[in-house]
């Protein structure tokens, strides 16, 4: 299962963002972490007393001891969430950023409203008193703020990586088991003349009518008969990268369609200059044909020489 997101951009009026179920689950997990952190903040803020609360908190009082205990539980849960956020950052290959709790240097013109440290959510007198007695509630509040900020940054970074990955053409473009390659990129003996010639893509043999699949998410920019390529589909994946699918017997998409990774876009055939049913697959980077082998090496045996 996959999800597709379309946003305004230079790609003929739209840009494609695709998210598969696994990647969506990763983002959902980070959302759950952020929600848990926010929920804890709401939980102990609901416990705040009104302005009529006493200025000092007696930790010998049962209510005072209970507050100290609750703060301890909160700190423990925050530590666990911070650890999980750090592990997630490591998985995403992101370097940890400076904590919002650490003062940042001012190196030029600066401004903004004056907010006291505790004013991230101003603490009432009872909580200030709790900190005076070593409960650490104000520190827990600041840690919660820092964690929310860190998780927000991780979510943005992960979303960007997921979108780039889903648009990257790294999936087998022909359905079925045991898919192989009959001709790789580079010099070869032409199948019709036997003369040495250049081959600008991969030839993947398959029975006529086998589904041709989008190797990555993108937008269809060409769909029709294209000379020696026969019935052809071209998908723009953004960032100057596109893929071409030639010799199809039937096209299943039209120009302007947004497609997801592994979506059926055509059926294998032998139209154009072809000696038998197969898919001719090309990767085009910034207008130049490049070797598709490195893009498919992990999923298609024989893609690289």
List the main descriptive attributes of the protein structure presented here:
Glucose Permease (Domain IIA), 305 residues, alpha+beta, 2 domains, two-stranded antiparallel ribbon, 5 helices
Structural overview:
Helix 1 (21-46) runs antiparallel to helix 2 (62-91) and helix 2 (62-91) packs parallel to helix 4 (137-167). The protein has two domains: 2-104 and 119-167; 186-296, Glucose Permease (Domain IIA) (Distorted Sandwich), CATH 2.70.70.10. The strands form three sheets. Strands 5, 6, 7, 8, 9, 10, 11, 12 and 13 form a nine-stranded antiparallel sheet that branches. A hairpin with a 6-residue loop joins strand 3 and strand 4. The chain has helices at 21-46, 62-91, 125-132, 137-167, 293-296; strands at residues 2-7, 15-20, 186-189, 196-199, 202-205, 211-213, 218-225, 231-238, 241-251, 258-259, 264-268, 278-285, 288-290. Helices cover 32% and strands 24% of the residues. The radius of gyration is 29 Å and the shape is elongated.
